[in-house]
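Researcher: Next entry in the queue.
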Amino acid sequence: MKKLYTLALMLFVGVVSFAQTIYSENFGTPTGTTLIPAYITGTAPATFQNGAPIVYSGTADVRATQVSSYVGASGGGNVWIAAVAVATPPLPNKYFQIDGINTSAYSSANIQMSFGHLSASTLVLEFSTNGTTWTPITFTNNPAWTLVTIAGGILPSSATLSLRFTGSTTGIRIDDIKVFNYNPACSLVLGAPTVLCNAVTFGMDTYTATIPYTGGGTGNYVMTPTSGTVGGDNPNTVAAGNITVSGITEGVGITLNFVNGVCTYSSIVTAPECKPVNALPYYEGFNYTAGSNLGAQQRWTNVNSGDEVVIAAGSLSYPNTAVSTGNSASFLGAGKDPFTPFTPITTGTIFASVLIKVADLTTTTATTGTYFLGLTDSGKGYQGRLFAKPSGTGYVLGFDSTSTTTNYATTVFNVNDTVLVVMSFDFNTLTYSVWFNPDITLPNPPTPSLTKLITLPTPPAVLNFGGFQIRQDSDTTTPSLVLDELRIAPDFNSLGLNLAVAQNEINGLKVYPNPVKNGNLFITSDSNNAKAVVIYDIIGKQVVNTTITNQPVNVASLKAGIYVVKITEDGKTATRKLVIE
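Model: Structure for this entry, 581 residues:
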């Protein structure tokens, strides 16, 4: 599916204003001088904007020379009416005629007309409702391009209105013909709406839309939003101000409709995503409903449009790592690129680990490889990228800071292998490192599978890591992939990959009961010295921070669920998974 990039929080306003267009023609852009009959059958943009029931005729032609230049001019093609030699009754020798304009739904008093005009002599403008009897319209001719406006009360209300432009002693040009309805009761002008989140939490928040306006105080408007409550300034009594719509659920766009019995307006508001930045250490077990869209979850947002990354039933697992929770994420080909933000890091190191499984390579016909996930800065700009490309019946993995790479490891993985990938960046040495299936029974990471040294510009650019992004490149380069157990932390041990090994760093450490049912968690060791205990929930939020010596940790206030306990004693740190029932 083609990927369509869009700007986040793009806002639109749709307005049927006090000048309601009945007919408009800018004559397109001809490729050369073209007679009217030939121009009718031309190919856009070298043809008329309007087709049936509008009918064009005449002995004039359409040209792209001496383009219109008044304020608001289209500047493309224009009609050239050559000098009249001898009139041929009942039609003039040189003319341009438009038939089939329908103004019957409007009052003659409110029907107006405008057109661009360039003439050193007299242009004759006439109207007819039967194609036989023609009535002249008086206006001022001008030798330079000028926009002429014909006031209300002249053009009739008719289902068969025709207009005819006739030349004089010298050539004449016309452009941008417009017939419109003007009603003085419809003077409201709406500005572009703005939005503001009322809160930014991991729950579903609400937002407020603010719509500026002018031209109020001239009618009795009934305002109806598709969601939310209308407030702010009242355009029925206040000439200019701001209308608000509050209590709208994040992610839900609305339309605010205005009706005063004569005219109708609408303001369309695109909803914001009121989603927070995730704290570190960050753990994502994809504990969402199978079949739901990842980008719709509160910890993620979609960067562009296309096919969704969806939640798949079941988890990936890897030897010696913590037990997987929740489900997993699945994607294939081109589409949306879900992004999850975390607290930006600008010093020290940043580590991210994730389990991946290539489930199918049959659609991956390109052999060049592509990157499918990576660490980004807080503005969603990729910093470190994980690549995959076919190799025989399997595939190899690569890592780089740029959009293409030759930096691939030699290990060939098979389809349906679960691979543990650990990525890092060291701000001190400006070095990227990546490990594929590292030995996590060691207290520190072993030698990397690949490294990449980067060079910053002089003076150095501000470098930060503040997000993780999944990328769907194309149907021929992105294989079918499953991701699970995403972890991000400022040091390797805080990733919590190997809870059993981490436990052994504190001699004789015991954490019990697990699951906890009565609100008391006991933590003991051989030394029984003071222990700093920090507990994080599944989204990485710190929920307990205490120091104990031979007493239980009170967890009675914690909701049932899965947590991570970080224990520090005598400079040694261990982490354990904790279940509270």
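Model: DSSP finds two helices and 41 strands in the chain.
Researcher: Noted, moving on.
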